[in-house]
Amino acid sequence: MARPRRSFSPEFKLRVVQEVENGESQASVARKYDLSAHLIPLWKKAFSTGRLGGEATGGPSVAELLQDQQIKAEIIQEQAQQIHLLKKALALQNSKSPSASSLSATNALPSRSRKPAK
């Protein structure tokens, strides 16, 4: 029985094309994502002509996809730096007051007062 027709987002197509352009073989990428091998050359051609995105159907262009990908990478890098700093601050705080780390989570949170019932 034939498999139902699948559709792929422009972001996914761009990722596949980039993997092939970064040196992976088309066959290995096709196996990795369970794709028909004939799709990758079609997507590569669409990418080279600037039509990999959904411009024809009102979707993002390749340039917009690349810009979006760059912005997301910058956000991820910034968040990784923030996590690193927070871990260092937590380690520093725990090294200064070892008894603070033994507090339970419920004791560390402020208590909520209930409003009296009317």
Summarize the structure.
This protein has 118 residues and is mainly alpha-helical. The chain has helices at 10-21, 26-32, 39-48, 62-96, 105-108.
* Helix and strand run: HHHHH
Give a short account of the largest sheet: none
Q: Report strand %.
A: under 5%
What helical percentage do the residues reach? 55-70%
**CATH architecture term:** Orthogonal Bundle
Number of strands: 0
SS class: mainly alpha
Output mean pLDDT.
80
Description:
The protein has a single domain (10-92), classed as Orthogonal Bundle (Arc Repressor Mutant, subunit A), CATH 1.10.10. 58% of the residues lie in helices and 0% in strands. Helix 1 crosses helix 3. The chain has 118 residues and is an all-alpha fold. The radius of gyration is 25 Å and the shape is elongated.
Main attributes?
mainly alpha, 0% strand, elongated, 118 residues
Topology:
Elements (H helix, E strand, L loop, with lengths): L9 H12 L4 H7 L6 H10 L13 H35 L8 H4 L10
